[in-house]
Amino acid sequence: MGGDVKANNGYDDQENIDAIVYALENGINHIDTSESYSGGKCEKLIGKAIKRFDRHQIFIATKVREWNLTYDKIIFACNESLKRLQTDYIDLYYIHKQNDKSDIKEICKALNYLLEQGLIKDVGLSNVKVNTIKKYNKYLNKKIYAVQNQYNLICRESQKKGVIDYCKKNKIKFICWRPILLSYPGVKNPKYETGTYPLLDYMAKKYNVTNVQIVAKWLLQQENVYIIFKSNNCEHIKEILDTDKFLISDDDWKKLDKEFPIQFDVGCSSNEFYELS
Ligand SMILES: NC(=O)c1ccc[n+]([C@@H]2O[C@H](COP(=O)([O-])OP(=O)(O)OC[C@H]3O[C@@H](n4cnc5c(N)ncnc54)[C@H](OP(=O)(O)O)[C@@H]3O)[C@@H](O)[C@H]2O)c1
Description:
- By secondary structure, this protein is of the alpha/beta class.
- It has a domain at 1-144: TIM Barrel, CATH 3.20.20.100.
- It is built from 11 helices and 7 strands.
- The protein has helices at residues 13-25, 41-49, 71-85, 104-116, 130-139, 157-160, 163-169, 198-207, 211-220, 234-241, 250-259, and strands spanning 30-32, 59-64, 90-95, 120-126, 146-150, 173-177, 225-227.
- A 7-stranded parallel β-sheet has the order 1-2-3-4-5-6-7.
- The longest helix has 15 residues, at 71-85.
- The chain is globular.
- The two termini are 14 Å apart.
- The structure holds NADP nicotinamide-adenine-dinucleotide phosphate.
- Residues 32, 96, 126-127, 148, 177-181, 212, 228-233, 236, 239-240, 271 line the site of NADP nicotinamide-adenine-dinucleotide phosphate.
């Protein structure tokens, strides 16, 4: 929301704010953003949208980027996010991506400080494999709360490399980014629309729901798996909320899992390949 990597004034800010308000009014309380989304504008839009709500009923997650992973920069970045979000604490503060040149001990020192000060309530890691989670847990004073990786019917690295199982076993919430967008470079006919994936069309027809609802529900039916999706269209948001009105049978869930025609073994440690224009 608010742009792409940089802020884009051509976007309709009010439409974005209205979508966030609609989501909050209709039972969604988890908002996910980053200091880097639309150059910080996304956090500002969220700050405006949440004003009329009780802050304690909302769970806000934001992220510090890989180029800010020194002690001082993390503290500074967190304070800037707090200002843009117009709040005095962040529920979940993620390391957005790893930076091989950074020192995890130093990063954790900054995160421990932010935890002590009450500026952040919990720490998360994004785009990581199991070894990285273990390293952070060695130095953090509070156990990692959540891992946020790309995961959907196509991107299966987290599933295949055991990140999802590790999180479940260790009571770390597994949050999937890009849960419904199945549009990837090299994939013929980009979206989940009818006619793209016959298996999705078949399931949607069988359950009398949309393809997007099948895609989302396949994730939501997995234990300890949560989704963060983006939409500035209230009808689309309702469509996702309505996924609580049906269940995919075990056999059909497994069929989707095994037989979905395109599956990539990448997508949790790096997202560069998948960034769409
Ligand atoms: N940690 C990371 O490195 C990372 C990277 C990327 C994203 N993320 C997070 O994950 C969130 C979601 O990822 P994403 O935005 O890449 O992918 P996504 O949520 O899977 O897909 C978003 C797209 O799906 C469309 N959409 C949403 N609901 C729909 C529906 N019911 N029917 C049809 N189309 C629908 C949206 O369009 P409309 O707006 O028109 O509905 C938008 O174009 C982001 O907002 C961000 O918070 C994290």
